[in-house]
Amino acid sequence: MKTFDKELILETINMIKLHNLDIRTVTMAISLRDCMDRDVNRVCDRIRKKIISHAKDLIRYANEIENDYSIPIVNKRIAVTPVSIIGESCDSYDYIKIAKTLDEVANEIGVDFIGGFSALVEKGCTKGDIALIESIPEALANTSKLCSSVNVASSKAGINMDAVLQVSKIIKDAAALTRDTDGLAAAKFVVFCNSVNDNPFMAGAYCGYGEPECALNVGVSGPGVVKAAIESLPKDANFSTLANTIKQTAYKITSTGELVGRQLAKKLNVPFGVIDLSLAPTPAEGDSVAGIFQAMGLEHAGAHGTTAALAMLNDAVKKGGIMASSYVGGLSGAFIPVSEDAGMIEAASKGVLTFDKLEAMTSVCSVGLDMIAIPGDTPSTTIAGIIADEMAIGMINKKTTAVRIIPAVGKNVGDTVVYGGLLGEAPVMKVNSLSSADFVNRAGRIPAPIHSLNN
């Protein structure tokens, strides 16, 4: 008769019940490249049939896996080929029609989000790219589950400043169209440098050009589990012990996530893609990356030493996860979204976590400036400057960086935006009032750095 390790069983139960361990998302990536047609109605019909054929059982099988393993799967999502490519095949562009079709299918299947209303324009825009970008505010304001992204920079191509300026205006327009919901449309849009093809997290998920016909990607969570592991150590444990503890914990989290992902992929009869190791926080108490910093010994997120703590956390999570899986991908690391992390919300509300400190932290975190509310009257040129700074960090450091920022119309520093669910709530943060206008209005592209010439 097989024997079981009681301590390991109890540890797993505690990770789930006491420390908020969950599978943050299972995301089915579906290629829509064979849906292209000169007639937008045929495109939409093919999109509907293609997504339903692959994803019709996603919710049912995910729920079965949840029950079988007693591990929560918080979100079920779909990511598709960047829609600018698909819509460009039509004689006349109608990206709004495609957006509504995607949203309708997402609602019909029952997933939480559908991503891929996207364009990749780091080196320049085609006519289809421009048409999609211009349609983003209306598309996001008139759909409930659609998410959108635009990649405006890369370490190989540099920063497309024309696109940066354009998307800064798009963010303002999206927020204005949804001012009654605190700019929710802007919360479903993200700007990238070095975006990745297999990211399972929204708002930036899409099915990249090199991806298979269909694949299942998994995003795990576990800040609460890491925090509890650190708190179990002596207060004077050295950094080597601290890093090893995080690695061991990340190994367990990753193993759990890959088990769930592979079993679900098998049920769906699709390839298992990647597991994204990112520690994705929630507004729930104890499920906070900022809480990890405090467990490490910082008074609060934003204290001097926060960037060093985040660098060590990110590195240890990746080292532990890579030992548990041969198929690590996506973004992988630690997210620092303000509105989705209870500790970050508290630190920002108290003023101990500033916008500038957040930007410094993005040089070592998994993504970038994420879910940050700013005054609604912030000029689009200032937003363009914020985006350009973040893209530069990604470009120079050969890493993915992103900006998901919400100009809260009618609100100012000290007010709060509220979304509920995983999107949480956030205090409106102060931004630098100095003008960036003359700089960002220069046309063209900031060249890629010298280390891009590494062929």
What's the structural blueprint in terms of helices and strands?
Elements: H1 6-17, E1 23-30, H2 40-55, H3 58-69, E2 73-80, H4 83-87, H5 95-109, E3 113-120, H6 127-141, E4 146-154, E5 158-160, H7 161-177, H8 184-187, E6 189-193, E7 214-220, H9 223-231, H10 239-268, E8 272-276, H11 289-296, H12 306-324, H13 342-350, H14 355-361, E9 369-375, H15 380-397, E10 401-408, E11 416-420, E12 424-427, H16 437-440, E13 445-446
Parallel strand pairs: 1-2, 2-3, 3-4, 4-6, 7-8, 9-10
Antiparallel strand pairs: 1-7, 4-5, 5-13, 6-10, 11-12
Helix pairs in contact: 2-5, 3-10, 5-6, 6-7, 7-15, 9-10, 9-11, 10-12
Describe this structure in words.
The strands form 2 sheets. Strands 1, 2, 3, 4, 5, 6, 7, 8, 9, 10 and 13 form an 11-stranded mixed sheet that branches. 44% of the residues lie in helices and 17% in strands. The chain contains 16 helices and 13 strands. With 455 residues, it is of the alpha/beta class.
Number of helices: 16
Query: Overall mean pLDDT score?
Result: 89
Number of structural domains: 2
Q: Architecture of the largest domain in CATH? A: Alpha-Beta Barrel
Q: Give the overall form.
A: globular
> What's the level 1 CATH class of the largest domain?
Alpha Beta
The number of strands is 13
Global Rg: 21 Å
Beta-strand percentage range:
15-25%
* Poorly predicted parts: 1-6
Which structural category fits the helices and strands? alpha/beta
Short description:
Helices cover 44% and strands 17% of the residues. The protein is an alpha/beta fold and 455 residues long. The strands form 2 sheets. Strands 1, 2, 3, 4, 5, 6, 7, 8, 9, 10 and 13 form an 11-stranded mixed β-sheet that branches.
